[in-house]
TrEMBL record:
Superkingdom, natural source: Archaea
Species this protein is from: Haloterrigena turkmenica (strain ATCC 51198 / DSM 5511 / JCM 9101 / NCIMB 13204 / VKM B-1734 / 4k) (Halococcus turkmenicus)
Protein name: Enoyl-CoA hydratase/isomerase
Lineage: Archaea, Methanobacteriati, Methanobacteriota, Stenosarchaea group, Halobacteria
This protein's record includes keyword Nucleotide-binding: no
Signal peptide region: none
Keywords assigned: Plasmid
Family the entry assigns: Belongs to the enoyl-CoA hydratase/isomerase family.
Amino acid sequence: MYEDIGYDVEDGVATLTIDRPDVKNAFREATLDELNDAVRRADEDEGVYALVLTGAGDAFCAGADVRSMPDWSDGSKEAYAGFLWKAQNVVRQLRSIEIPAVAAVAGPAIGAGCDFALGCDLRVVDPDVKLRQGFVKVGLVPGDGGAWLLPKLIGESKAREYLLTGRDITADDAVDLGLAVDVDEEPLDGAYELVDELLDNPAHAVRRTKALIDPSLSFEEYCERAIEYQWECVNDEEHEEAVAAFGERREPEYDRDYS
Protein backbone atom coordinates (compact mmCIF):
# COMPACT_ATOMS: atom_id res chain seq x y z
CA MET A 1 0.00 0.00 0.00
CA TYR A 2 2.83 2.42 0.82
CA GLU A 3 6.26 2.90 -0.73
CA ASP A 4 8.10 4.91 1.94
CA ILE A 5 6.57 3.55 5.14
CA GLY A 6 5.53 0.23 6.59
CA TYR A 7 2.07 -0.20 8.07
CA ASP A 8 1.29 -3.25 10.16
CA VAL A 9 -1.53 -3.96 12.58
CA GLU A 10 -1.40 -6.73 15.15
CA ASP A 11 -3.33 -7.27 18.38
CA GLY A 12 -4.86 -3.82 18.27
CA VAL A 13 -1.59 -1.96 17.67
CA ALA A 14 -0.74 -0.16 14.41
CA THR A 15 3.01 0.13 13.77
CA LEU A 16 4.11 2.84 11.34
CA THR A 17 7.72 2.49 10.19
CA ILE A 18 9.45 5.20 8.18
CA ASP A 19 11.25 2.91 5.76
CA ARG A 20 14.02 4.77 3.95
CA PRO A 21 17.06 3.44 5.82
CA ASP A 22 19.50 4.31 3.03
CA VAL A 23 18.97 8.00 3.90
CA LYS A 24 18.46 7.55 7.65
CA ASN A 25 14.69 7.65 7.02
CA ALA A 26 14.85 11.24 5.79
CA PHE A 27 11.51 12.09 4.24
CA ARG A 28 10.41 13.36 0.86
CA GLU A 29 6.99 14.77 0.04
CA ALA A 30 5.59 11.31 -0.74
CA THR A 31 6.68 10.13 2.71
CA LEU A 32 4.67 12.89 4.33
CA ASP A 33 1.62 12.01 2.25
CA GLU A 34 1.88 8.39 3.35
CA LEU A 35 2.46 9.23 7.01
CA ASN A 36 -0.57 11.51 7.09
CA ASP A 37 -2.71 8.85 5.47
CA ALA A 38 -1.46 6.06 7.75
CA VAL A 39 -1.97 8.01 10.99
CA ARG A 40 -5.50 8.86 9.94
CA ARG A 41 -6.13 5.26 8.89
CA ALA A 42 -4.99 3.90 12.25
CA ASP A 43 -7.20 6.31 14.17
CA GLU A 44 -10.25 5.44 12.08
CA ASP A 45 -9.77 1.67 12.52
CA GLU A 46 -12.07 0.57 15.34
CA GLY A 47 -9.84 -2.44 15.96
CA VAL A 48 -6.74 -0.30 16.62
CA TYR A 49 -6.21 0.89 20.17
CA ALA A 50 -2.68 2.35 19.98
CA LEU A 51 -0.10 3.51 17.45
CA VAL A 52 3.67 2.98 17.46
CA LEU A 53 5.85 5.20 15.26
CA THR A 54 9.40 4.12 14.48
CA GLY A 55 12.08 4.11 11.80
CA ALA A 56 13.78 1.32 9.88
CA GLY A 57 17.42 0.46 10.54
CA ASP A 58 19.53 2.54 12.89
CA ALA A 59 17.65 5.83 12.62
CA PHE A 60 14.26 7.29 13.48
CA CYS A 61 14.12 10.14 10.97
CA ALA A 62 16.93 12.46 9.89
CA GLY A 63 14.53 15.18 8.77
CA ALA A 64 13.92 16.25 5.19
CA ASP A 65 15.79 14.51 2.38
CA VAL A 66 17.48 17.53 0.84
CA ARG A 67 18.36 15.55 -2.28
CA SER A 68 14.68 15.24 -3.19
CA MET A 69 13.73 18.81 -2.36
CA PRO A 70 13.10 21.30 -5.14
CA ASP A 71 14.94 24.61 -5.20
CA TRP A 72 12.39 26.54 -3.17
CA SER A 73 14.12 29.84 -3.98
CA ASP A 74 12.83 29.39 -7.54
CA GLY A 75 9.32 28.46 -6.40
CA SER A 76 6.39 30.18 -4.78
CA LYS A 77 5.68 30.77 -1.14
CA GLU A 78 2.36 28.95 -1.60
CA ALA A 79 4.07 25.80 -2.89
CA TYR A 80 6.53 25.81 0.00
CA ALA A 81 3.72 26.40 2.50
CA GLY A 82 1.89 23.39 1.11
CA PHE A 83 4.91 21.16 1.62
CA LEU A 84 5.54 22.47 5.12
CA TRP A 85 1.88 22.02 6.03
CA LYS A 86 2.18 18.31 5.28
CA ALA A 87 5.04 17.94 7.76
CA GLN A 88 3.15 20.00 10.33
CA ASN A 89 0.07 17.87 9.82
CA VAL A 90 1.89 14.68 10.78
CA VAL A 91 2.57 16.27 14.17
CA ARG A 92 -0.93 17.76 14.29
CA GLN A 93 -2.52 14.37 13.71
CA LEU A 94 -0.32 12.51 16.20
CA ARG A 95 -1.42 14.97 18.85
CA SER A 96 -5.10 15.05 17.91
CA ILE A 97 -5.93 11.40 17.18
CA GLU A 98 -7.92 9.66 19.90
CA ILE A 99 -5.64 6.64 20.30
CA PRO A 100 -2.34 7.02 22.17
CA ALA A 101 0.82 7.25 20.06
CA VAL A 102 4.20 5.96 21.24
CA ALA A 103 7.48 6.74 19.46
CA ALA A 104 10.27 4.14 19.42
CA VAL A 105 13.31 6.30 18.69
CA ALA A 106 16.70 4.93 17.71
CA GLY A 107 19.63 6.97 16.47
CA PRO A 108 19.04 10.40 14.93
CA ALA A 109 15.68 12.15 15.14
CA ILE A 110 16.49 15.49 13.58
CA GLY A 111 14.46 18.54 12.62
CA ALA A 112 10.96 17.49 11.61
CA GLY A 113 11.97 13.93 12.53
CA CYS A 114 12.43 15.14 16.09
CA ASP A 115 9.05 16.84 15.91
CA PHE A 116 7.38 13.59 14.80
CA ALA A 117 8.73 11.98 17.96
CA LEU A 118 7.69 14.92 20.15
CA GLY A 119 4.21 14.82 18.62
CA CYS A 120 3.65 11.37 20.08
CA ASP A 121 2.25 10.97 23.58
CA LEU A 122 5.17 8.92 24.90
CA ARG A 123 8.68 8.04 23.78
CA VAL A 124 11.15 5.19 24.33
CA VAL A 125 14.70 5.88 23.10
CA ASP A 126 17.85 3.87 22.52
CA PRO A 127 21.20 4.75 24.18
CA ASP A 128 22.50 6.38 20.99
CA VAL A 129 19.51 8.58 20.30
CA LYS A 130 20.04 12.15 19.12
CA LEU A 131 16.96 14.34 19.36
CA ARG A 132 17.99 17.51 17.59
CA GLN A 133 16.15 20.73 16.82
CA GLY A 134 18.94 21.70 14.48
CA PHE A 135 17.12 24.17 12.28
CA VAL A 136 19.27 27.15 13.32
CA LYS A 137 22.38 25.25 12.21
CA VAL A 138 21.18 25.49 8.62
CA GLY A 139 19.61 28.93 8.84
CA LEU A 140 16.00 27.86 9.36
CA VAL A 141 13.35 28.05 12.08
CA PRO A 142 11.53 25.07 13.63
CA GLY A 143 8.74 25.06 11.10
CA ASP A 144 7.12 21.76 12.04
CA GLY A 145 6.13 22.47 15.64
CA GLY A 146 9.34 22.12 17.62
CA ALA A 147 9.43 25.61 19.11
CA TRP A 148 5.82 25.14 20.25
CA LEU A 149 6.15 21.55 21.51
CA LEU A 150 9.49 21.61 23.30
CA PRO A 151 8.75 24.45 25.76
CA LYS A 152 5.53 22.70 26.77
CA LEU A 153 7.31 19.38 27.28
CA ILE A 154 10.47 20.46 29.11
CA GLY A 155 9.93 24.11 30.09
CA GLU A 156 10.71 27.33 28.29
CA SER A 157 14.21 27.98 29.60
CA LYS A 158 15.63 24.56 28.75
CA ALA A 159 13.80 24.52 25.44
CA ARG A 160 15.43 27.83 24.48
CA GLU A 161 18.84 26.22 25.07
CA TYR A 162 18.20 23.41 22.61
CA LEU A 163 16.28 25.48 20.07
CA LEU A 164 18.74 28.37 19.89
CA THR A 165 21.94 26.28 19.93
CA GLY A 166 20.81 23.24 17.97
CA ARG A 167 22.39 20.96 20.58
CA ASP A 168 21.53 17.28 20.73
CA ILE A 169 19.25 15.92 23.42
CA THR A 170 20.92 12.65 24.43
CA ALA A 171 19.23 9.56 25.86
CA ASP A 172 20.08 10.49 29.44
CA ASP A 173 18.95 14.07 28.85
CA ALA A 174 15.67 12.84 27.38
CA VAL A 175 14.87 10.76 30.47
CA ASP A 176 16.01 13.45 32.91
CA LEU A 177 13.89 16.06 31.10
CA GLY A 178 10.85 13.80 30.98
CA LEU A 179 10.87 13.51 27.20
CA ALA A 180 11.45 9.75 27.27
CA VAL A 181 9.82 7.14 29.46
CA ASP A 182 12.86 4.87 29.27
CA VAL A 183 16.12 4.07 27.51
CA ASP A 184 16.10 0.64 25.88
CA GLU A 185 18.67 -1.12 23.68
CA GLU A 186 15.66 -2.18 21.61
CA PRO A 187 13.33 0.83 21.76
CA LEU A 188 10.67 -0.87 19.63
CA ASP A 189 10.41 -3.68 22.18
CA GLY A 190 10.22 -1.08 24.93
CA ALA A 191 7.49 0.77 23.06
CA TYR A 192 5.44 -2.41 22.73
CA GLU A 193 5.82 -3.08 26.45
CA LEU A 194 4.58 0.43 27.13
CA VAL A 195 1.66 -0.06 24.75
CA ASP A 196 0.76 -3.31 26.53
CA GLU A 197 0.49 -1.30 29.73
CA LEU A 198 -1.83 1.18 28.00
CA LEU A 199 -3.98 -1.63 26.62
CA ASP A 200 -4.44 -3.00 30.14
CA ASN A 201 -6.58 0.07 30.87
CA PRO A 202 -10.13 0.76 29.63
CA ALA A 203 -9.67 2.08 26.09
CA HIS A 204 -12.25 4.87 26.23
CA ALA A 205 -10.75 6.23 29.44
CA VAL A 206 -7.28 6.26 27.84
CA ARG A 207 -8.59 8.11 24.80
CA ARG A 208 -10.51 10.67 26.80
CA THR A 209 -7.60 11.20 29.20
CA LYS A 210 -5.40 11.98 26.20
CA ALA A 211 -8.00 14.52 25.03
CA LEU A 212 -8.02 16.18 28.46
CA ILE A 213 -4.28 16.80 28.35
CA ASP A 214 -4.71 20.13 26.61
CA PRO A 215 -2.75 23.07 28.05
CA SER A 216 -4.78 25.50 25.96
CA LEU A 217 -7.86 24.86 28.10
CA SER A 218 -8.69 27.13 30.99
CA PHE A 219 -9.46 25.31 34.23
CA GLU A 220 -13.17 25.94 33.78
CA GLU A 221 -13.06 24.62 30.22
CA TYR A 222 -11.18 21.59 31.48
CA CYS A 223 -13.80 20.95 34.16
CA GLU A 224 -16.65 21.20 31.68
CA ARG A 225 -14.96 18.79 29.30
CA ALA A 226 -14.12 16.43 32.17
CA ILE A 227 -17.80 16.22 33.14
CA GLU A 228 -18.71 15.12 29.62
CA TYR A 229 -15.89 12.61 29.38
CA GLN A 230 -16.44 11.22 32.86
CA TRP A 231 -20.11 10.63 32.09
CA GLU A 232 -19.12 8.74 28.94
CA CYS A 233 -16.70 6.62 30.96
CA VAL A 234 -19.22 5.92 33.73
CA ASN A 235 -21.48 4.40 31.08
CA ASP A 236 -18.71 2.43 29.37
CA GLU A 237 -18.66 -1.37 29.62
CA GLU A 238 -14.91 -1.47 30.18
CA HIS A 239 -15.28 0.81 33.19
CA GLU A 240 -17.81 -1.60 34.66
CA GLU A 241 -15.51 -4.56 34.02
CA ALA A 242 -12.49 -2.75 35.51
CA VAL A 243 -14.43 -1.93 38.69
CA ALA A 244 -15.75 -5.49 38.96
CA ALA A 245 -12.27 -6.96 38.45
CA PHE A 246 -10.83 -4.65 41.10
CA GLY A 247 -13.47 -5.74 43.59
CA GLU A 248 -12.94 -9.40 42.78
CA ARG A 249 -9.13 -9.13 42.91
CA ARG A 250 -8.62 -10.37 39.34
CA GLU A 251 -7.36 -9.04 36.04
CA PRO A 252 -10.04 -7.38 33.90
CA GLU A 253 -11.16 -9.10 30.71
CA TYR A 254 -12.20 -6.63 28.02
CA ASP A 255 -14.35 -7.72 25.09
CA ARG A 256 -12.37 -6.19 22.22
CA ASP A 257 -12.21 -6.96 18.54
CA TYR A 258 -8.56 -6.32 17.76
CA SER A 259 -7.48 -5.78 14.17
